[in-house]
Amino acid sequence: MSIAVERSRTTGSGGGAADAIRRFILSERFARVASYLFLLLIWWLASVYEDRFPAPLETFQFLWIEVTGGSHGGIVRGEFLEHFASTLPRFGLGIAISMVLGIAVGVLIGGSKWAEALLKDTLLVLLALPAIIWAFLTQMWFGLGDDAVVITTFLSAFPFVAVNVVQGIQAIPRELRRMSRAFHVPRIKRLRHMQVPAVTGYIFAGFRFAVIVGWNAVLLSEWFSSSEGVGWRSRYWYDANRYRGFVAWVILFIGFIVLLDRLVLVRLQRRAFRWRDAQLTPIERETEEIDVGVKGA
Predict the structure, then answer these.
(1) How far is CA 273 from CA 24, 48, 201, 279, in A?
(2) 69 by DSSP, 3-state: which?
(3) Distance between CA atoms of 54 and 48, rounded to whole angstroms?
């Protein structure tokens, strides 16, 4: 009898441990860690078979020197803070201009058939132009300096904000718009009490698009039109034939925008729209956040 109980306990303990391991392997955290490790493995294998491809370890060592201001040999030192401090004001100003003008143009197109016929095709053309085209054009127009970088960021991000606002305005029920006009509701009151609440979610989605697209535009524009900044520092190491430095700055560039999106923008979105998201399940809420991020990317 005692032997049977002991066997049962042993079997139960083993089954519990096996279930715990299975749940851990099937968890989202394990899947994410496994995907990172898989990418590192692919990266390491590529560096083994291709001499010009830097290995992960030496790239992260280079990155550490750059971030901490250490020496790369001779008089060349890491300059992470200096170049990020040059890039962030340009990026912020370009995004601010794109938000102001994007909301104004979006409200205009969404609220007027005449303005829609006049401007919507132009907006679609701007939306189709890639950031690298604007980087080339602004370099020719403005030469080296902050102007080219700020305007490239604005021109790349502005259409995404405007298009989202147009969609928000046009999503307002037609009957509601007709009724407001039939009762002669002043335009200011319509804007304040009907249009702004309806488009708030679309404005935030446009803001996330603008941040992601604008950050890519900053890199491209600084590559061609600046003598300092994140994009220029990436080109510096590329021209110096030190690919570890180039890849290290690409990692910094991607890491910054991912952290900004996941730690700041997504949390702001949850706080701002918690009244709306309370009606969604956790899976639906996360799917919507990821969907907005993927579309923006």
Answers:
(1) 32, 48, 8, 11
(2) coil
(3) 9
Strand pairing category for 76-77 and 71-73 = antiparallel
Calculate Rg over the CA atoms of the chain: 26
Q: How many CA atoms lie within 13 A of 60 on its CB side?
A: 6
Phi, psi of 171 (to 5 degrees): -80, -10
Residue 91: burial class (beta carbons within 10 Å; 0-12, 13-18, 19+): buried
Contact status, residue 214 vs residue 231, Cβ threshold 8 Å: no
How far the first Cα of the chain sits from its last, in Å, is: 64
In order along its 297 residues, the chain shows pLDDT tens digits of 455 545 555 555 556 777 877 777 777 878 888 888 898 899 888 888 877 788 888 888 888 888 887 777 777 777 888 888 888 999 999 999 999 999 888 888 887 888 888 888 888 888 888 888 888 898 888 888 888 899 999 999 989 898 888 888 888 777 777 787 787 777 778 777 777 777 888 888 888 888 989 998 998 898 888 888 888 888 888 888 888 888 888 888 888 888 888 888 888 777 766 655 555 555 555 555 555 444 444
Tokens of 32: 């994410």
Do residues 78 and 136 make contact, with C-beta atoms less than 8 angstroms apart?
no
- Residues 144 and 226 sit within 8 Å (Cβ to Cβ): yes
CA pair distance 92, 215, nearest whole angstrom: 10
CA–CA distances in Å: residue 219 to residues 102, 150, 231, 276, 282: 22, 11, 4, 35, 35
* CA 188 to chain centroid: 33
